[in-house]
Amino acid sequence: RFYEKVQALHQDPKASVDNPLLAFSLIKRLHSDWPNIVYSDEAAENTQALHAGFKEVEQELPGAEDLDGAARALMRLQDVYALSVKGMANGVFQRAGAGQPPLYSPGRRISLSADDCFHVGKVAYDTGDYYHSIAWLEEAVSLFRLSYGSWNPEDRSSLEDALDHLAFSYFMAGNISHALSLSREFLHYDPSNGRVSRNVAKYEKLLEMGTAVRGCHGPPPHRYCPSHMLLGPFFSQLAPELHPHLGCSYETNGNPYLLLQPAKKEMVWIQPYVALYHDFISDDEAETIKGLAGPWLQRSVVASGEKQQKAEYRISKSAWLKDTADPVVRALEQRIAAVTGLDLRPPYAEYLQVVNYGLGGHYEPHFDHATSRKSPLYRMKSGNRIATVMIYLSAVEAGGATAFIHANFSVPVVKNAALFWWNLHRNGDGDGDTLHAGCPVLAGDKWVANKWIHEHGQEFRRPCSADPQD
């Protein structure tokens, strides 16, 4: 109401502040009436409602765990794809080393600020990971030096903070001389800091005593998947003529369901047996399944002894869908049964698991089948997981391949295709060659649907062989 009165005065063509009486009344209203509005009961109620609205929105915003998880995702991408930290900070996804082509070229280049790089380095620093903290804090220091003296309201850290953390990281990595150099630079900007002054004296004494300077810690082992073959289209490592059994075919599997529309099968590998079925699901079906799972997505868990728990080696969200959830899910299960020739009726198979891998989402090397009789998988009382069907519900721009570690090959994300492999030998033993990993998503949003099929019910569909070792 106050605003409308003031606005009316300004918009009235016959009213002019040249009129001293109008000018006086306007000044009085601005001076006297505005405090009445600010301190009114109505304003207090409005303020409380606005604050409550902000708090409600805050519940949906990323938290500290999400931010730290995103920082760890960047470090994971750095490791697995051997990316240059300086390149990442400049928005370029390029392998470390000169002359390497970018692994991924986004339409719009996004650069990281000095404060962004500092936060990634600080996450590594807080966990004692000085290999990563040095790389990211070096970039933060470099960027802070370029902008020193200018104030950025988004910065929560400073050049001094970055120098302080970087110096101690180098000290913990064994490079005392460089820790001393960085600490002296820190004192140039903050000469009264007693703690850093004591550190300088300590480093000088250690160097005078001739303390052996250990080499900086090297990078952690690439535990995720073989980084040299994650992004390109799938190819056999050997010449095609050496793989006469690898090829493409239309398959009906002796099932009437597939007579009019045979499955498009590509044999990917023989041992382990891995096949890729192209166009296994339609775009509409994929979107329906993603939509059904979306409201139920939760952080994925893994089997740990007799329990299930969250783990850093599997970063994703997942949900489970029964075949009664939608006719699309029921039709998909019928299609899986037809292509695999296996019995999916309860309890011979698990519900459809829908998984979303976001920023840096990955799953480190693991087996789908249980390697211990204490595994929760045996609670179904239908044996071990004999086979896996993994359906790619989306495409990704880069990364996200499924890598079979011991067999040394990977399969990229092929939208709407289904990947099938046997987890067990015919004698029921686990196949060690099925050790596989979901490589980190470098760019994009990866959705998959997993169907795990168990041993029981398949006795006459995949019988034992005459050779007990088979």
Automatic annotation (TrEMBL):
<dbReference type="Pfam" id="PF08336">
    <property type="entry name" value="P4Ha_N"/>
</dbReference>
<feature type="domain" description="Fe2OG dioxygenase">
    <location>
        <begin position="348"/>
        <end position="455"/>
    </location>
</feature>
<dbReference type="InterPro" id="IPR059068">
    <property type="entry name" value="TPR_P4H"/>
</dbReference>
<dbReference type="InterPro" id="IPR044862">
    <property type="entry name" value="Pro_4_hyd_alph_FE2OG_OXY"/>
</dbReference>
<dbReference type="GO" id="GO:0005506">
    <property type="term" value="F:iron ion binding"/>
</dbReference>
<comment type="similarity">
    <text>Belongs to the P4HA family.</text>
</comment>
<dbReference type="InterPro" id="IPR006620">
    <property type="entry name" value="Pro_4_hyd_alph"/>
</dbReference>
<keyword id="KW-0802">TPR repeat</keyword>
<dbReference type="GO" id="GO:0005788">
    <property type="term" value="C:endoplasmic reticulum lumen"/>
</dbReference>
<keyword id="KW-0408">Iron</keyword>
<dbReference type="InterPro" id="IPR013547">
    <property type="entry name" value="P4H_N"/>
</dbReference>
<keyword id="KW-0732">Signal</keyword>
<keyword id="KW-0256">Endoplasmic reticulum</keyword>
<dbReference type="GO" id="GO:0004656">
    <property type="term" value="F:procollagen-proline 4-dioxygenase activity"/>
</dbReference>
<comment type="subunit">
    <text>Heterotetramer of two alpha-3 chains and two beta chains (the beta chain is the multi-functional PDI).</text>
</comment>
<dbReference type="InterPro" id="IPR045054">
    <property type="entry name" value="P4HA-like"/>
</dbReference>
<dbReference type="GO" id="GO:0031418">
    <property type="term" value="F:L-ascorbic acid binding"/>
</dbReference>
<keyword id="KW-0847">Vitamin C</keyword>
<keyword id="KW-0325">Glycoprotein</keyword>
<dbReference type="Pfam" id="PF13640">
    <property type="entry name" value="2OG-FeII_Oxy_3"/>
</dbReference>
<dbReference type="InterPro" id="IPR011990">
    <property type="entry name" value="TPR-like_helical_dom_sf"/>
</dbReference>
<comment type="function">
    <text>Catalyzes the post-translational formation of 4-hydroxyproline in -Xaa-Pro-Gly- sequences in collagens and other proteins.</text>
</comment>
<protein>
    <recommendedName>
        <fullName>Prolyl 4-hydroxylase subunit alpha-3</fullName>
        <ecNumber>1.14.11.2</ecNumber>
    </recommendedName>
</protein>
<keyword id="KW-0479">Metal-binding</keyword>
<keyword id="KW-0560">Oxidoreductase</keyword>
<dbReference type="InterPro" id="IPR005123">
    <property type="entry name" value="Oxoglu/Fe-dep_dioxygenase_dom"/>
</dbReference>
<keyword id="KW-0223">Dioxygenase</keyword>
<dbReference type="Pfam" id="PF23558">
    <property type="entry name" value="TPR_P4H"/>
</dbReference>
